[in-house]
Amino acid sequence: MIGGGMFIDGFILGGIGVVMPAITQELQLSAAWQGLIGASALIGIFFGGPLGGYLADKVGRRPMFICTLALFLIGSAAQFFIADEWSLFLVRLLMGMAIGADYAIGWPLLAEFAPARLRGKLLAVQEVAWYVGYLASYAVGYAFAGSFAIDWQIILGLSTIPSAIVFLMRLSIPESPRWLMSKGRSREAEELASLYMSEEEQRDLKEEKVRKASFGSIFSAEHIRSTTFVCVFWICNVTPYFAIATFAPVVLTQLGLKDGLTGALALNGVVVLGSVASVLLIERVGRRKLAIPPFWISAAALVTVALFAGASATVVILCFLAFSFFNAVSTALTAVYPGEVFPTEIRGSGVGFATAASRVGAAVGTFVLPVSMENLGVSATLMFAAAISVIGGVVSHFLAPETKGLVLSAASGSSTGN
C-alpha cells in the first residue's frame, strides 16, 4: 500500500516530461511557463510535505494516509479537463501537495513497522516503486505520443487508474503502534504490535516515551544535525535529477542525439536499475557506502558531458547513463534516512520538512534549467548540476550516520557519521 502510493507519485511526476513538448506546442508556452509547469508539482510538495507530516504527528498516520490518496484521485481526474496553462499549473500544484504529504506519512509509517534487519531494504524499495512509476508513466506517454493521436490531457489523466486502486487498498491499513505509544495509548499499541511487529520490534516499542514536541523541535539542538543532513542530502540528490529528467528529451537533443525522447526513456530505465542495486546492497554494505561515493561519480559524469558536449554522442549518452544509475543508488536512501533519524514524536514533521526542502531545490532546478540552457548553454548548466553533487558528497561525508542493523529507537538517536 505504501509502495503503491510511491508508484503513483512517480507516475504523476514522470508523465509531465514526456508530454511537455506537446503541451508547449499546443499552449504556446514560454520558457518561463515551461519551467513553472514542470515545477508545479514540486512546489506543491513544498507545502504538502510539512503540512502532511505535522498532521500525521498530531492526528495519526492512518487518517492522513487515506486523505492523500483521495487528493491523488481528485487531481488525476481533473487533468482530463485541463484547457490552459493556469489550470494545469493549479491541478498539478494540488497533486504535488498530496505527494509531499504522502512522503511525510508513508515513510515514517513503514519505518515504524519494519524490523531492523530489513528496514533499510523495505524503505529503499519505496524509491524503486517511485522510479518504476516514473518509468511507467514515461513509457506509456512515449508509446501513446509516438503511435496514437492521443491528447496530452488523457496521458496525464491515466494516473486516475492506479490512484483508485491504491485508495481502496489503503482503507484497511492499521495505525502505527509507535505513534500510539508516543501518545500514551499503550494498550492499543501493544495489541497492534502483537499482530504486525516482530518480537525485537515489540521489545523496542517499549522504549517509546510520551514526549511533548512541536514542529519546531526538528530545529532544536538535539535534532538540528539530523535535520541539516537529511535536507542537504535530499536536495543534492534530487535537484540535478529532476532538472535533467523533466527536460531530458530537450537536453539530449541539444547535445546531439537524434532521438532525445528514446534516450530519455533509456535513462529512466537505468534509474530503476540503480535503485534496485541500492535495495540489494543496503543491508550488506550499509548506508554510508551507498550514500556518499555516488555523489562524486555523478559529478564526474556531468562534468565530462559539460566539457565534451557535442564531441561524441556516445560519450554523452554513456555519461548520462552513469549519472542516472549512481544518482539513483544514492537517491534510494532519501526514502531511508528521513524515516530513521527522527524520533517518533517528530518523525512526520522531520520527513515533511526535509521533503519540502528537497523540493525547493528540485523546483528551482526544474524552473531554472530551460532558462539557463537558453541563456548560458548546456555546458554551463551541467557544470552547475555537477557542483550540487559535489556539495552533497562533502556534507554527507561529515554528517551521514550509519544506521544499518539498529532498532528504530537507536537509529533515531544516531546523528553523527562513522
Most strands sheet: none
Kindly report how far apart the N and C termini lie: 34 Å
Helix/sheet category = mainly alpha
* Radius of gyration computed on alpha carbons: 21 Å
Q: Provide mean pLDDT, rounded.
A: 86
Low-confidence stretches: 414-418
Our estimate of the beta-strand percent is under 5%
The global form is: globular
Number of strands: 0
Number of H- or I-type helical stretches: 20
Q: Helicity range of the residues?
A: over 70%
Helices and strands, in N-to-C order?
HHHHHHHHHHHHHHHHHHHH
Structural account:
By secondary structure, the protein is an all-alpha fold. About 80% of the residues lie in helices and about 0% in strands. It has 20 helices and no strands. Helix 2 packs antiparallel against helix 18 and helix 11 runs antiparallel to helix 16 (about 315-330). The longest helix has about 30 residues, at about 115-145. It is globular and about 60 Å long. Residues about 415-418 have low confidence and may be disordered.
